[in-house]
Structure formats: structure tokens, C-alpha cells
Amino acid sequence: MQLYIMMGILLLLMQCKRTTARELARKFEVSERSIYRYINSMSALGIPISTQSGPKGGIYLSATIDLNKIYFTREELNYLNQLICDEKTNPKITSLQQKINYLNKNSKKK
Questions:
Q1: Distance between CA atoms of 105 and 22, rounded to whole angstroms?
Q2: What is the CATH code of the structural domain delimited by 2-61?
Q3: pLDDT in tens, 31-82
Q4: 98 vs 27, 56, 72, 79, CA distance in Å?
Q5: What pLDDT score was predicted for residue 96?
Q6: In this predicted structure, what is the pLDDT of residue 64?
Q7: Domain-wise residue ranges, the chain
Q8: What is the pTM assigned to this prediction?
């Protein structure tokens, strides 16, 4: 479940650019405190994720990320896809699975 949430946060930030811990907590059905734990874990792994407080603050990626080139080998993508396939009963997983499949196809071309 933690992998699903962290991947979801990363993919969401790549799409929408900036969001709040409250919105993420609501989307992934966890507490805001858990979201901050995930953010800290992701930062420790080297993902350029930042937070800013205030009315125009939020959680965002501080650099452009190309998952295909930076974070996943073909084997890792295959493993993630297998994890996702094991969770097919969860309707939230479909979008993540499509993106992983896309990354997988593109990594095989190179």
C-alpha cells in the first residue's frame, strides 16, 4: 500500500504540479500526517519533492522528473507492474497501471 501511495503522489505531482497534503490525504484515504511521512521518505530516496507553507504553498516537485530515465530500470518497471497486477481489485490502480505500462513500452524501445 505504501508503494501505491508514494507512486500515486509522484505521478499526481508530475501531472498537476502542486497540491496540498489535505488534498492528497483525501485522495489516498490516509491522514495528512501520513502524507508528510511519505513525502519525507520520497525526499530521502532522492526524489526532488518540496513543501512550502502559506496560502500559495503546497507540495510540488522542485525539478522535472523523467521516471523512465532516472528512477526505474526495466526490471523495476516489470516488478512494479507485477505489484499492480496483484492489486487489480482496487479501482484506483487502473491509471497507475496504464502509466507503468507506458513507461515499460518506452523503456523497451531504447
A1: 34
A2: 1.10.10.10
A3: 999 999 999 988 888 888 888 888 888 888 877 665 555 556 777 777 776 7
A4: 19, 32, 16, 14
A5: 66
A6: 65
A7: 2-61, 67-109
A8: 0.57
